[in-house]
Design brief:
Radius of gyration: 22 Å
Number of domains: 2
Order of helices and strands: HHHHHHHHHHHHHHHHH
Mean pLDDT: 88
Number of strands: 0
Oligomer: single chain
Strand content: under 5%
């Protein structure tokens, strides 16, 4: 796929998600946090992250293995489709057993267990939707993938909007939120399965246990990598809730800061969704991945750095806008600001981690992720008892920058990716000049919303002038 086609599909995918997911995050999810009692959302957030920690046993790397295999050999999908479905079903039962067992040893109470069972079901449904989407994306049906990528959120928005604003005097709580998610994910999973089934010609409807065993064996390295990555990106909220006496309250505050990072990650995740099958195809055809890697990195670096500059500079105002007097302003704003700084390395990982995954350089990625796990846990143990939620944010940003740098070095070593000195100068100029101008505008324009908007426009102009934004790729003709 040429750069023009890549960016056209990326633009469509981002547009579809930007119309839906931010509304879910800030319209529904934020409203739920503000509506429920103190610490309630914090417990939900900790349990959600706890359920995600064991996602490895639900997927076992099947989704990424399937994406790479179907991208390179589309004819294999009809042969392996039914075997993949059986494998996903077996993993679903294993995941249920393991999470319940881990929760029992962790000492969660009856209410937490009730919520956790819904979260387990939701994770199973989400995993199945991701699997269906991975096949559809691998077949390069990106418009259909874009539709399915927002379908579950549209359904959750519809159900929760009715419960939150459509019923008078309705005492909305976390249980209602979880049940709404389960209903929406169930319907989305059914539609995703039907969409994938109609895209497969003559599927082989027979069970081949040797094929299932082979699939598990081949996907195991992906599984280990995903497991380790999830630990150092999600364990902070779990440790925060478990270590501190007021853990649920501090996790509530941490979740408030994390929400904006979660929203921004939509763009990076969509980059990875498109890049993985395209990188796999280029590598399979023995074509150079450098042009696409450099172009996508330049673009995502501009987006992530600009977002980090804007939201860190205006962190107090943004926190006030989102949460009012729900939390202590300066403390929550500082957590939000620090977490947003980690978006820069996280975004770069969506390019280089994806490239190394597609090229099957999993062993060095696993070693790097294992280092990230130990580093993040040690940092959390050091920072959380003293600095609480802010300490967890510090642990996150330190870990992500070290891991991000590691991914770049691995891409240079294994994939022979090269960077021009002038590109490094452009990135440094964007950060230095962009930060200075944004701070200057904030201090000299009384209305912060106007200052925020003007700063954003200035960053776009600066990115254009430095050629970090590459609109010319849309005008390129396919060869």
């Amino acid at each position: 796929m040429k750069l023009k086609s890549f960016y056209a599909n990326l633009a469509f995918l981002i547009l579809a998600n930007l119309l839906v997911k931010p509304f879910y995050i800030f319209g529904i999810d934020r409203t739920v946090q503000l509506r429920v009692g103190e610490g309630e959302y914090g417990l939900y957030f900790a349990l959600y992250n706890f359920s995600v920690l064991f996602y490895i046993f639900l997927d076992l790397g099947l989704t990424q293995y399937n994406t790479r295999t179907v991208s390179q050999h589309p004819d294999q999908l009809p042969k392996n489709f039914f075997n993949f479905i059986i494998a996903k079903s077996l993993l679903g039962f294993a995941y249920l057993f393991i999470v319940v067992l881990a929760a029992t040893f962790n000492g969660y109470g009856p209410k937490a267990f009730d919520w956790l069972l819904y979260l387990i079901m939701n994770q199973i449904l989400i995993s199945f939707i991701f699997f269906c989407r991975s096949s559809i994306a691998a077949l390069q049906k990106f418009r259909l993938d874009a539709f399915l990528s927002v379908l579950d959120r549209v359904l959750v928005i519809g159900i929760c909007a009715f419960l939150l604003w459509g019923l008078d005097d309705f005492d909305f709580n976390i249980s209602h939120f979880l049940k709404a998610q389960t209903a929406a994910y169930t319907l989305a999973a059914i539609i995703s399965f039907i969409s994938l089934s109609t895209s497969i010609k003559n599927p082989v409807l027979s069970i081949n246990f040797k094929a299932i065993q082979y699939i598990f064996k081949q996907s195991l390295p992906f599984a280990i990598l995903i497991f380790l990555t999830i630990i150092f990106t999600r364990i902070d909220a779990v440790m925060l809730e478990r270590i501190l006496k007021d853990g649920a309250k501090e996790t509530d505050i941490y979740a408030a800061g994390f929400r904006l990072l979660d929203a921004l990650n939509i763009v990076g995740l969509l980059f990875a969704t498109l890049l993985f099958p395209i990188f796999s195809k280029l590598i399979q055809k023995k074509k150079s991945v450098t042009p696409l890697a450099n172009s996508s990195f330049m673009t995502i670096f501009f987006l992530s750095s600009s977002a980090a500059i804007l939201f860190y500079t205006f962190r107090n105002d943004v926190t006030q806008l989102l949460y009012g007097t729900k939390f202590e302003l300066i403390y929550t704003a500082n957590i939000l600001g620090v977490l947003l700084l980690s978006f820069v390395p996280i975004a770069s990982n969506y390019v280089f981690n994806t490239l190394l995954n597609a090229s099957n350089h999993l062993k060095p990625l696993i070693y790097l992720a294992l280092f990230g796990v130990f580093l993040n846990i040690l940092l959390n143990l050091y920072f959380i008892p003293v600095q609480k939620a802010y300490g967890a944010a510090l642990a996150t940003v330190i870990t992500q920058y070290i891991i991000g740098i590691g991914h770049i070095f691995l891409a240079i070593y294994f994939m022979k990716i090269t960077f021009k000195k002038k590109d490094l100068f452009k990135k440094t100029t964007l950060i230095a000049l962009g930060s200075f101008c944004t701070l200057l505008l904030k201090n000299n324009i009384q209305n912060w919303l106007i200052a925020f908007f003007v700063s954003g426009c200035l960053l776009i102009i600066l990115g254009w002038a430095l050629k970090l934004l590459r609109p010319d790729v849309f005008l390129q003709k396919d060869n």
